[in-house]
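Database export, one record per block. Field names are fixed; values are copied verbatim from the stored entry.
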Amino acid sequence: MAADRISKELAESMPLPPFTIEFQKVKFLLNQKAVVKNIKKVPLNRELMESIERDGILSPILTMPSYYPIAGSQRLRALLELVQTHPEGYTFKDIKIEVHKFEKDWWNLFFLWSNRKEAERVCAIWFQMAELVWKSKYYTETTDYAGIEMTHFERIGDMLKWQHNSPRTVRIAKDDS
């Protein structure tokens, strides 16, 4: 699913919730509470890490308001590995990444549904569709500098064993009536 794309024209016709565009250093992102708590659960995509080591981050990432990535968790995981194990890891900490950050936790409305399992399923679909539309709109690089298609790394990531659920901030509105 992560490697899927739709045409830019179709993506442009699809609405996305508002987001802000920022440029953040890797060390800032890796120190965010939700990232610290969950990023090591993302499997390491070694081929992607090698590409990042060689070429850097070529496309923006999409995050929740907490800065946890919706699109870009594998890249952030690879950066953590580079920071921790690379002889010059400190240089990776200072790289600035373009971050598209959703302004609010738009998906929380699904958790008003009384069936928690169904709410989680629908929320997961929402995240996948938001990621699909966003990547199709905002990923400008289709290959790294070695000519490897970016979707190649995403297909590898889809085959890795994932051990986490995306952290969600669930705020259930209280009905005071």
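Remark 1: Residues 166-177 have pLDDT under 50 and may be disordered.
Remark 2: The first strand starts at residue 19 and ends at 25.
End of record.
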